Structure formats: structure tokens, C-alpha cells
Amino acid sequence: VLLYDSPVSGNCFKVRLLLSHLALPYERRSVDVVDRSGRRELLGALNPSLRVPTLVLDDGRALGESGAILWYFGEGSRFVPEDRYERAQVLQWMFFEQYEHEPAIAVARFWLAYSGQPERFEARREERTAAGYRALDVMESRLADREWFVGESMTIADIALYAYTHVAHEGGFELEPYGAIAGWLARVAEQPGHVTIDA
Amino acid sequence: VLLYDSPVSGNCFKVRLLLSHLALPYERRSVDVVDRSGRRELLGALNPSLRVPTLVLDDGRALGESGAILWYFGEGSRFVPEDRYERAQVLQWMFFEQYEHEPAIAVARFWLAYSGQPERFEARREERTAAGYRALDVMESRLADREWFVGESMTIADIALYAYTHVAHEGGFELEPYGAIAGWLARVAEQPGHVTIDA
Hints:
homodimer; alpha+beta; 7% strand; globular
């Protein structure tokens, strides 16, 4: 399979992290996340959102949205539970990540660390920062009495939430008050098969 | 099962529409979407995001996020395909809806038609309107040569996208140029078991 990828995108890292755990080989093709010219020519026929990650299967069929790609590879593996309620819970946390976590934490990180013009977004960053801390509060509360977001082992919900949480400091977020999150971040990184975002 | 619900929320309507198609009985409990005081007391132990829909199963276990609830009820029914790639495509369009469509179209609709103070949000509505039209363009393109978003019949991806698209005019969106979307909206509404958002 071919992965249209960015080395700094947490959404792309989610896919690379799962593929590493599953020991599935793939080809990476890097796409610029700052200069978006040429995206329609490159991705238009594959992913109408023109975003990365975009996956292309060996038969040419394409798939967009990190959550959908995680599900495609994760179903049937140890990273997606078999129980119906737990499967839905995994999706609950993945939708939470895309709706409440990523638009705050990933966007603040992009503006501050990767846009090349952080001053342009400074006025809008305060609102995203507040929203990001609310998402972190929700995570901290969930992890207060459990090791993983769903069930008793790491799932694609943990992978989805790890991606931007472990680099949240690049977006100006202070994670020191979040002890349960810190323990969970360490557990994810200790799993055999783990790779770093810059690997 | 018990559904914490709002009669005006498209996210809640998605769940009611699927439950109607599946002919599953449930109890509705209405939650105010403008006055959010008391939400923590009401939903805090059930859904850390404090949002509706929140589902409570007969054994007391809870589930949040409309997409996760749709998957919970949809898996194993005719509204979620059995093919692995098509299942992932259904999720692709559901994540698209929550990431690119809902934050634009549903939010503009809420500000304009339900917040009670549309003038307060007027300055920020232009950006959401532009984002909403981009999402509608993506939908129109997808539907140009197909009847449903995935496969050959209605899935929960159609239900998820229908919810806020069919009331997009309340957010100031002009749908007349979108002929393929208009045909698809009519197909969804013609399905046996369909209910309206105000039912």
C-alpha cells in the first residue's frame, strides 16, 4: 500500500504507528503541509478533502481520514475489540479526538510550530488553547482509574489520541499537571513495535 | 435504551433516524442546547464531552458521539456494509462529516437560527460559511455519479451527512446549485422508515 504522508502530521503518524505495530510494509510519499499548492492535482482523485493521510491500496482504491484508515487496518487485530460496546467506545474516543482534541491542539501546534508565521494566528490561538485544555481535562478524567481509553489493552483509540497529545507542548500546552496522561503516554511509548513521530 | 436528545440537534436526529429505520424502541429525554447550565450534573457521569446525543443502555452503560452511536446500532444491519473497504469508507464519510461539515454547517445554523443572539456570531460566520460550501462541494462531487455515499444503498454515512445538510438553509446556505445533493436528499427522505427532524 501507498501512504500519502507528512512527517510532522499527527494524523499521518497515527497510521504509521499502527502499521508499525502490525508489522505491515508500506510506501511513504511525503506531502507538504504548509505549501498546499498542487494538492488537487496530487490528491483530488483519491481524497476529496485533499488531506493527508491518504491511503492507496494495491488495487488503486483510496481511503481518506485517519480514523477510517486506522479502522481499516485495525479491524480483526488486537487493536480493535471484538465486543460490540467496546468497538463503539473506541469510535467514541476517535470521534472525540477529531471533533474536540485535534481542531484545538493540532491546530495550535501547527500555527505555533509549523506555519512559519505564528504571529498571523496569535489572536485566534487563545480560544484553541482553552479548547485544548478542556480536551486534556476530559482525557485526564478518563485515565484517572484506567490504563487505556477502552478495555484492558491499547486500541486504535489510544493511538489516535496519542498522536497529538505527545507533541502538545509544541502547541504551547503545559502537560505537567496531567499525571494520568503522563503515565498513559509512557505506556503507549513502551509498547513493543512503537515508533516515534520522526522515525 | 434512553437517549439524551435535543429536538433541534442534527447529531441527535441522526440517531433517531437510524433507530426509526431499525424499528428499535427508545426513550427520549430532551436537553436544552442553548442554556447549558446543569449539563455536568445531568451528563457528567455518562459522557465526558457533556454533549447530546448521549445514549444509556438498559444496563446503565453509556455512549457518546453520534458517530459511535450510529455504529453501535448500525453494525450487523443493512446500514453498515460487510465489506472491509466499504466499512472504512462509511467511517471516512462520517469523520468527514464531523471534521469538515458539522463544525461549519451545524455551527452556522446554530448561530443564525437557534442561539437567540445571531449578531454576536456574525463576524465569525463568514469563515464557517465558506467552509460549509467547501464541504457541500465535496458532497456534490461525490454524488455526481452515484446514488449513495458508499455502496449501492443507504448507509449510516448517508444518515450522518443528511442530518445537517437537509437543514443547511437554516444556516444561510443556498442549496439550489447542488443538484446531485438535492436528488440524494430526496432519496433519503423517500426511504421507508424515514422520520423528520421534528417528529
